[in-house]
């Protein structure tokens, strides 16, 4: 076997092997945005915004959709729609992007963290009820990395306790459980259209729900003015966060939506190939896909078995970092993502919130001291310590590149004893 690249050997993935970043913008995408510009209707309820809202609602299988300026805005609007208020508590997974929890602070409420199920990386239903109090109003589940959370179990718990189930689908456009798509799996859902997402619109977001009451209540945050019978009226009934979507993002999103399913299918084929091959390596744990779930692989994340740390007498973060360095040197791009638990972010450990300790110390809160230490969330901590992403797994990158990635892993695995001796 060739020497490792870090020891002067040839790279497993040569520099001249083409790898294409996401998303690959097509001429159709350019034409769609150009047409929107030429129409001179680029603000307000412009044609592409209105059309996208109808198309995305139909795609998800729900009645109502509102375009927003980002996924965080859509999540914040979902909380308003759910009737969450100052001092209320909202269940949130301990590992996700910060917006999954910061949206709760945006609405003067308190995020209460719950550990994840390590197999799926999503909210662990078995640990939710122990965190519910008489202040709890909603549960936010995150369809992390493209895999739907266990919505059957989450919805059952929400129904039992009279809570609103909020789906953070920002990474899971087109994913499904038993054929039912994200967006229709909970009471209300939010999506991001950031350029990295499976459905990229440069920037933007989408809120969807089948509940008209939630939908109407969510829109109080949209802007200070009100739309009455198609006309703008100006008495302000809310802060008016100006969460509206822009027409150019809507035009790009509509163009990309036409190809979402085929591109998701290509992602799935690529990732299933990687999982089959990398799963043969001792100590590699590919993504888990529960029966009936359709994964759309916003990210391709693998885990390392803690037995590797025991074998080589080193902490798992050290093992992970050593393997990532060797893989990157071989031309196999790997990255981490969020590198700490949400409860460990400074805004929670210091109780900064939106100033002077609020919402935790505000008079409407319960005054409870929630545990924001990493020790309280061992599965989420294991995710941070043992997992990393493999990049360029998405289309148009195809089998030739992925086969080189597999060879890179195989080469590094052949030298683990040397790396950690």
Q: Name the average pLDDT.
A: 93
Share of helical residues:
25-40%
Strand content: 15-25%
CATH class of the largest domain: Alpha Beta
Q: With helices defined by DSSP (H or I, 4 residues minimum), what is the helix count?
A: 14
**Cα-based radius of gyration, to the nearest Å:** 22 Å
Provide the number of structural domains.
2
**How many beta-strand runs?**
18
Structure description:
With 421 residues, the chain is an alpha+beta fold. The chain folds into two domains: 5-19 and 259-338 and 381-419, Aspartate Aminotransferase, domain 1 (Alpha-Beta Complex), CATH 3.90.1150.10; 27-258, Aspartate Aminotransferase, domain 2 (3-Layer(aba) Sandwich). Helix content is 35%, strand content 15%. The chain contains 14 helices and 18 strands. It has helices spanning 27-39, 47-60, 71-81, 99-106, 151-161, 212-218, 247-257, 260-278, 307-312, 316-329, 346-349, 378-386, 399-413, 416-419; strands spanning 64-68, 89-93, 110-114, 116-117, 122-123, 136-142, 164-168, 176-177, 180-181, 188-192, 205-209, 226-228, 231-233, 284-285, 293-294, 301-304, 334-335, 387-390. The chain has a seven-stranded mixed β-sheet with strand order 1-11-10-7-6-2-3, sandwiched between helices. It has a four-stranded antiparallel β-sheet with strand order 14-16-18-17. Helix 4 (99-106) links the parallel strand 2 (89-93) and strand 3. Helix 2 (47-60) packs parallel to helix 7 (247-257) and helix 3 (71-81) packs across helix 6 (212-218). The protein starts with 26 loop residues before the first helix and ends with a helix.
């Amino acid at each position: 076997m060739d020497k490792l690249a870090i020891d002067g050997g040839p790279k497993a993935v040569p520099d001249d092997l083409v790898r294409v970043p996401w998303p690959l913008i097509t001429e159709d995408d350019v034409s769609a945005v150009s047409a929107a510009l030429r129409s001179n209707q680029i603000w307000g309820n412009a044609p592409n915004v209105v059309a996208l809202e109808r198309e995305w609602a139909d795609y998800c299988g729900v009645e109502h959709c509102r375009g927003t300026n980002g996924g965080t805005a859509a999540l914040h609007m979902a909380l308003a729609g759910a009737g969450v208020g100052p001092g209320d508590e909202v269940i949130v997974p301990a590992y996700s992007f910060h917006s999954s929890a910061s949206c709760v602070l945006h609405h003067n409420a308190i995020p209460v963290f719950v550990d994840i199920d390590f197999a799926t990386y999503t909210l662990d239903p078995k640990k939710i009820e122990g965190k519910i109090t008489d202040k709890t109003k909603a549960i936010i589940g995150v369809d992390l990395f493209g895999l739907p959370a266990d919505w059957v179990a989450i919805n059952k718990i929400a129904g039992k306790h009279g809570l609103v189930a909020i789906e953070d689908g920002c990474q899971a456009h087109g994913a499904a459980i038993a054929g039912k798509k994200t967006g229709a799996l909970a009471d209300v859902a939010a999506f991001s259209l950031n350029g990295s997402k499976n459905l990229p619109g440069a920037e933007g977001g989408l809120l969807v729900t089948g509940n008209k009451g939630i939908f109407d209540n969510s829109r109080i945050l949209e802007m200070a003015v009100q739309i009455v019978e198609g006309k703008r009226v100006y008495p302000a009934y809310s802060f008016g966060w100006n969460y509206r979507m822009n027409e150019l993002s809507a035009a790009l999103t509509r163009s990309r939506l036409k190809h979402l399913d085929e591109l998701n299918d290509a992602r799935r084929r690529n990732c299933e190939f990687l999982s089959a091959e990398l799963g043969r390596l001792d100590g590699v744990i590919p993504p888990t896909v529960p029966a009936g779930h359709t994964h759309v692989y916003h990210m391709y994340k693998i885990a390392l078995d803690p037995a590797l740390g025991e074998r080589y007498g080193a902490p798992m973060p050290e093992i992970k970092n050593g393997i990532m360095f060797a893989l990157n040197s071989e031309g196999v791009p790997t990255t981490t993502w969020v590198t700490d638990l949400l409860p460990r972010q400074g805004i929670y450990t210091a109780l900064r919130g939106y100033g002077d300790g609020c919402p935790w110390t505000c008079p409407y809160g319960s005054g409870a001291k929630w545990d924001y230490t990493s020790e309280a969330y061992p599965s989420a901590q294991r995710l941070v310590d043992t997992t990393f992403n493999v990049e360029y797994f998405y289309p148009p990158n195809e089998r030739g590149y992925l086969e080189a990635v597999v060879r890179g892993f195989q080469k590094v695995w052949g030298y683990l004893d040397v790396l950690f001796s």
